[in-house]
Every structure is written in C-alpha cells, then in structure tokens.
Amino acid sequence: MTIQSSINNKSKDYSTMYSNIEESNSGKSLSFDINGLNASIVNGLRRTILNDIVNLGFRYESGEKSIKVNKNTTGLHDEFISHRISLLPVTIDNWIQNPGEVDIDDYTFSLNVSQKSQHKKNGIVTTDDIVVKCNNNGNISEIDSKKCFCRNKKFNSPILITRFPNRDGSEQELDVEFTLTKGTHSNHACYSPTVYCVSFEKEENKTNEMIHEFKLESIGIWSPYKLVQQGILNLIYKCKNICNKIEDNIAYKYKGSYMAIDYRFNGESHTIGNIIQEWIYNSEFVEKKVNGKNLSHISYHEPHPLENHIIIRFVLNEDNAPMDFEDYKERTDELFIKYIKELEEYLMECLLQWKNITKSDSKHSLL
Predict the structure, then answer these.
(1) 264 and 153, same structural domain?
(2) DSSP one-letter code for 90
C-alpha cells in the first residue's frame, strides 16, 4: 500500500512501517521497530498508551470510593488494604469484547476471610479468595475469580493481597466489598494498562533517526498488540475532536503585537499538540525557508501544567494575509481542518497496516 504523505511530500511504502516484531513468552511484552514515522507521532503513541486508554479498576479515594471495608481486624489499616485492592489488574471478558454493551455495575466483588479460613494457606490472602458475582437481569451467578484477575503465567499463581501473621489469642478478620469503575491513567494509576520505564543505553553506532524501537509491557487486561491498536485509535479520535472544535468556532484573535489566531482545546495536552505542530510545520516549511507555503508561524503551548488545555497559534504569510479578522480566521480554519484531515488519513493507514500485520500471524492476538 502506497499513499502520498504530507509529512515529507513523498510516497511512502507502508508495508515496511512495522518490523522486527518480538513477543515475550508470557505474551505480555512486545518490541518492534517503527520505520519512517515522525518522532512526534511515535511519542504521541507512547503518551496515549500510557495515559488515555480506558481501563477497569477499583477506586478508594473519598468522593469516588468503590471499596468498602466492613470489618478489618488485621495488622494493616483500612487505607492500606484499600490501596492494595485498587491496584489489582481486573479482567471482565465481556467488557473487553464489547465495552459499550456491558454494565460494570452488574458485577460485585467481595473478600471475606479470617485467620482461621486461611490457616491451611499459611495465612496468605490472594485474588483466589475474592468472590465475584454477576447480576444478569435479576439472575445472580458466581464467576470464577481466576477469570477476573491475572495470574503469573510461569507459576500459575494468584496475586498476593495480604497475609495474616500467626498470633495466638486473636482472631483476625477481613471483610471488604468493592465494585468496578472506569477511567484512564491520567485520572488514577489504578487504570494504567502499562507502566513508565526509563533507561539509558550507550550505542556505539549512530542510530537512524527514522527508525524507532518501541517496547511495551501490559500489566492488565489488554494484550500489547491491542494497546498499540487502541493507542493509534485514540490519536485518530483526537483528530476528529480537534476538527469538530474548529468547526464550533473556538478561535480568537491573539492579543499580542501582530495578527495571529489562537485555538484553545480543552482536555488536550502535549500528546496531540506536538503532533499537530510537527505535522503542519513539515507540510508548510518543506524547503526550511523563513516563510511556509501559507504560514509564517505555527506553534502550540500548554499555558500551565495543572490546566488541562493547549493553545495552537497560526500566523499567515503577510503577502497573502487578509486584513479583516473574520477573513483571516476563515483562512486559518480552512488550513487547520485540511491538515488535521490529512493527519487523520495518515493515522488510519498506520492503523490498517498494524491490523494487517497482527492478522498475518495467528499467534498475535489483539485481545
């Protein structure tokens, strides 16, 4: 498959975009090379996988609490137990396959154990001790907890929650109820599908800037293949959202000493901001001149790290820039939408190529 790419105005063969795909024995880790893709898009993919993929989890903070400790006479206080439970990676098969058709409120989880009940297990409490029930139109059925919580693939062992120490003369008990919530890692770490990992390697040979080595490890319900697919989808959704907001007339005049148009996008961050800036810059300033084909300036910035929005600024070339604000804005709107739609098409090709590769090998399960 070959398309015209505005990132460098050259035809690009997408059949070699992903190469050297290697999967770990556990099926949870994946590494591959991304060839010829701009670094801003690769970094955007990394950021959206870390922060924007919707996942299931348990919340324990006040206001959004889904964990209720009914009784706790163990050596650990309620907050510690709640925190342990909130970080359990939980799986609901039906939700993975059809998220929109599953009501997570139908599922309830309970952990009711004591020092006596765990005596034969040396006092150890694990995810195997959790009771999972599903309410299907009034019919309550119990689900095997082994299907809901990840197990160590090498030893087939459950996740440790706590342990009752051997104490004579005291009967320790733990009774907890919890329900599912949905969210992303940007809301809370309990929804994270993977983890941050930073390392440093000294390479002897000069690296090729257009080949990016991508590594990821899933710690939850998603396979690494599905994480990449969902990450690209997230970037496509962000492009659609940007286009809709441009059409909703969100632009306003820059208050500085020169004519410019600012676009404010609430709920967006560096993830899409840097991609848009690089995409438009590389499309406009092909010959690296002072002025581009239509623009003399394109940039984005995040005004404050605690304010969840970005501002993208356009400045038209003076020789063809309208003097009237409405005409100026209409011109920047047209350019902005044009480039975002091109970016969306480009990402769609990236997604289709990834799907083709994962389907080409039966071992590559998207779920």
Answers:
(1) no
(2) B
